[in-house]
Amino acid sequence: MEIGLVQKEQGQVQAALYTLKKALSLFRVQQDTKSTGQGLATIGDIYVTLNQFSEANTYYQDALQIAKTSNDKPLTAQILGKIGALLLLKGDIEEASEALTHALTLLKENGEASEISTTQAWSVSYTHLRAHETLRYL
User: How far apart are CA 128 and CA 23, in angstroms?
Assistant: First the structure.
């Protein structure tokens, strides 16, 4: 999976997608649920980069299902954050707010709502407000 992440960082998005999908297949064969969930979410990120939001959502939802089934609250929170950000990009502010609030709640329950998480929540809230203001004038 690391090679796919490096490829993504270098702008080799299609190569990254190919590499990550191969890694995902291996994670599934090994029945490594955490890596499978992370791999699905990372592939979702690639599709967001490609502005293929529907495809990204499919991968995020699959990742979320795995995270919830395995009761992995940190991974669930991470994926909910990604879904929230995607929903903001799509202009669905209400659902985005719900997903992001749920993510932050899970982080707090798990004792992982660090100063960084709080800062990110404020940043997302600001983005949420700006998006709402922008949409109001369209």
Answer: 34
DSSP for 91-136, written as a single string: T-HHHHHHHHHHHHHHHHHTT---HHHHHHHHHHHHHHHHHHHHHH
Distance between CA atoms of residues 95 and 92, nearest Å: 6
Residue 87 CB neighbour total at 10 angstroms: 21
Tell me the pLDDT tens digit for each residue of 7-55: 989 999 999 999 999 999 999 999 999 999 999 999 999 999 899 999 9
> Could you please report the per-residue DSSP string of 29-49?
HTT-HHHHHHHHHHHHHHHHH
Whole-prediction pTM: 0.80
**Residue recorded with tokens 């999908």:** 21
pLDDT in tens, 106-115: 887 877 655 3
How far is C-alpha 1 from the chain's CA centre? 16
